[in-house]
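Hi support team,

I've been running sequence recovery on a batch of backbones for a student project. Most finish fine, but this one hangs at about 90% for roughly twenty minutes before it completes. I'm not sure whether the input is malformed or the queue is just slow. I've pasted the structure tokens below so you can try to reproduce it. Let me know if you need the job ID as well.

Thanks,
M.K.
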């Protein structure tokens, strides 16, 4: 099955926003960077650029290069839509007035999926200094423009080395296996609790309700995946701020989307936030409430000097909260082991 079953719901993108298709010669070929200057509206309460703004930029950059690749051969015209965000790491902050450069490349393809890696650099246009802000790996699927329910095949890329194709296939199989092992938990929407105790899950859990309008949607009337990702990031940030009490770093128009977040696990210096997105039809009574997306966000608590601080301990109360905590602990230990393996010097 396609990875989009567990990732963000594949949404139709505005085809007219993409340049004419150009042929992809292989995974080493990059398109020109997407460039955007950061404005005051792009910042959070800590005066840094909102993480959701960067997520939206990453998603759109990946969609452009994937759409180019999927239309690189004669045949049915399609648009690449986001299926899953495999991993996004925020490495440094970005400030107002800096220029964000998103560079993207295709690193692997399968029959119906395109793997894209996107790096975002921040540039101080006065000094010329550049910093790597974030790195992401995303998967896209090509949807037929005449019928967005139909998934088309991806034209294969031409690899410069045989090892690149083998490495890409291994990543695809590993991601597919991980998806099967961690099938999305079909939890209920977060409900408010009266007078919760500090440091409990109920104390910091949050919800955001947003009516999807025209500015949120593509030409085909589906919400942009980047819009949903930004809203999810906002809810995760609210959960973190409530817990730490300090500053922290496919849906059709007319639907009401509810984004719910709660803290599920924490280590000494990091916090895991689970965010769920549900869509409710306002007018069409034939459609039902639908779970359209879900994600886990990891946050760190930093001092004003940018140093990592210890996090207040989380107190799971219910059986479900305790189960989530243990599941999060298992995921945390697995990711920690992976980072240690990658950090070891290669022979």
């Amino acid at each position: 099955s396609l990875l989009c079953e567990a990732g963000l719901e594949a949404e139709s993108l505005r085809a007219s926003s993409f340049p004419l298709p150009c042929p992809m010669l292989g995974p080493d070929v990059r398109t020109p960077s997407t460039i955007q200057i950061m404005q005051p509206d792009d910042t959070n309460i800590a005066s840094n650029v909102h993480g959701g703004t960067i997520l939206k930029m990453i998603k759109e950059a990946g969609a452009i290069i994937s759409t180019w690749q999927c239309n690189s051969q004669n045949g049915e015209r399609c648009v690449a839509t986001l299926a899953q965000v495999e991993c996004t790491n925020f490495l440094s902050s970005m400030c107002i007035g800096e220029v964000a450069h998103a560079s993207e490349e295709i690193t692997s393809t399968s029959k119906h999926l395109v793997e894209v890696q996107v790096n975002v650099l921040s540039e101080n246009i006065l000094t010329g200094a550049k910093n790597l802000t974030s790195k992401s790996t995303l998967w896209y699927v090509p949807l037929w423009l005449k019928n967005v329910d139909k998934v088309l095949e991806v034209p294969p890329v031409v690899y410069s080395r045989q090892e690149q194709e083998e490495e890409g296939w291994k990543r695809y199989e590993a991601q597919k296996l991980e998806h099967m092992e961690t099938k999305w938990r079909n939890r209920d929407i977060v409900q408010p609790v009266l007078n919760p105790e500090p440091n409990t899950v109920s104390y910091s859990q949050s919800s955001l309700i947003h009516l999807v309008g025209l500015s949120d949607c593509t030409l085909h009337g589906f919400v942009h995946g980047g819009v949903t990702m930004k809203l999810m990031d906002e809810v995760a940030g609210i959960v973190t701020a409530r817990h730490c009490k300090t500053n922290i770093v496919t849906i059709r128009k007319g639907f009401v989307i509810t984004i719910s977040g709660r803290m599920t696990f924490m280590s000494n210096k990091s916090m895991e936030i689970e965010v769920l997105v549900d869509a409710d039809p306002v007018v069409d009574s034939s459609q039902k409430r639908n779970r359209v997306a879900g994600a886990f966000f990891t946050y760190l608590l930093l001092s004003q000097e940018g140093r990592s601080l210890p996090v207040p301990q989380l107190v799971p109360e219910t059986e479900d909260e305790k189960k989530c905590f243990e599941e999060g602990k298992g995921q945390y230990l697995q990711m920690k082991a992976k980072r240690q393996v990658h950090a070891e010097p290669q022979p």
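--
Follow-up from support: It reproduced on our side and the slowdown came from queue contention, not your input. The longest strand covers residues 130-144. No action needed from you.
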